[in-house]
Amino acid sequence: MEKASNLESKMYVLDTNVLLHEPLAYLSFQEHNVVIPMTVLEELDHIKDRKHDVSRDARVAIRGLDEVLKNATPEQMLQGVALPSNKKANANSTGTLIIVNDHLFADSISGLPGDENDHRIINCAVYLQKQHSDSKIVLVTKDINMRLKAKGAGLKYVEDYRTDQLIDDIALLTSGYKKIEGDFWQHVGECKTEQNGRDTFHHVAKNLIPDVFCNEYILDGSEHFAARVKSYDDEHITLKDISVERLMHQQAWGVKPKNIYQGMALDALLDPSIELVILTGPAGCGKTLLALASALEMVIERGIYDKVIVTRNTPEIAESIGFLPGTEEEKMAPWLAAITDTLEVLHKGDENPISSRNYIMEKANVQFKSVNFMRGRSIQNAVVILDESQNLTASQLKTIITRCGEGTKLICSGNLAQIDSNYLTPVTSGLTYIVERFKNFEGSATVNLNGVVRSRLAQFAEENL
Question: Could you identify which of 26, 211, 252, 312 might form a hypothetical disulfide with 294, taking C-beta atoms 3.0 to 4.6 angstroms apart as the criterion?
Fold first, then answer.
């Protein structure tokens, strides 16, 4: 390989997990050189035939690499093949893709034993750092321990793959509402108000709330004013006046909000014009209860939808629901016990809560489905509740969202502090991804449910453990 000309040139060595996380990740390094060690290709080869969701990503990565390198000679592969332009990035590529046979390098270069694949990849990066001293060699991996070992082995630059991260810190995640200090009307100058049936709309200046998006809730310090952003342009924002009193007096299947956050959530959940509702928040804030209560209200009482479909990932990270006996719904029952528990809570005052639960499940046509079997479906006139969605990737969430047809409402709930997946962090979770991607979509609303209402014990645990 020819040496890079100066330190402005960067050479990124990609680990296997980066390509499994985003199969076409190498297209994101538009103006730099991307190195794929032979060990990475071997790992992709071993993974591609497994009966797991990750095998699909491995196959996509292999096909993508083949597309770039199919007309290249062995010499060109070592020197670097021009990267195609990334349509998403909308940029002209000046970088190259290089395949390196890291098996030819001595194991002693990095000081790590060479029988592990991670060590071979680190060894390759350290070798390139010595060979290209006038260039910046960066190892990109999502494995935290590998990043630590690489630095210990003498590699100067080690990074996580951050191209798909829409925010740098989870604290920056959209909450779905804004609070304005003091009385809202004291800040408002010229305002045009109009009545449309039962609804009141205010047209206020855009500079009053600069960073606003559709269906965001606006609260003030008076604890009386509450509104939802209906639309906006460069000069004005149209607010739908709701008022705190109206929010707190809503009801769905006998459930009333215990705080203003639950009130905002119920408002979004019970509005058929909002097709996607995303509920985030700590354990015990009422996400599942509100989602199920509003689903039953809209299916049985109001007749807006025909059925309720409940789905969530299974502990094997949405891979398999194993060899549990019974039908798909019976297999899913252990993972969806939170839903049946919630149904029992909603009917705990009945003479026979279990009979009531079974009757309501039949009347509302409540179906338990595995994420595995959602691909290829088209769901019409239904409320889809996706519980524990913090454990899903953006790709898996896209699969579910694109299943929703006409007249379907999707409710995604999750707690980003309770991620069970080995491969996801709060910043890279699919739940974080859709909160940021859909915040400007007029058919979606996000509400972060602050405050634990499950019990005194749960609240203390959430705050102090």
Answer: 252
Going by pLDDT thresholds of 50, 70 and 90, the confidence category of residue 39 is very high
- The number of beta carbons lying within 10 Å of the beta carbon of residue 199 is 11
The per-residue pLDDT for range 398-429, each reduced to its tens digit, is 888 988 888 999 999 998 888 887 767 888 88
Q: Spell out where 135-291 has E strands.
A: 136-140, 157-159, 177-180, 192-196, 199-205, 217-220, 226-232, 236-241, 276-280
Residues 398-421 as b/e (b if ≥16 CB within 10 A, e otherwise) read: ebbbebbeeebbbbbbbbbeebeb
pTM equals 0.75
pLDDT tens-digit series, residues 154-208 = 999 998 887 765 555 566 688 889 888 888 888 887 788 898 888 899 988 888 8
Cα–Cα distance for residue pair 36/12, rounded to 1 Å: 9
Domain range list for the chain: 9-160, 258-463
For domain 258-463, give the CATH superfamily: P-loop containing nucleotide triphosphate hydrolases (3.40.50.300)
CATH H-level, domain 9-160: superfamily: 5'-nuclease (3.40.50.1010)
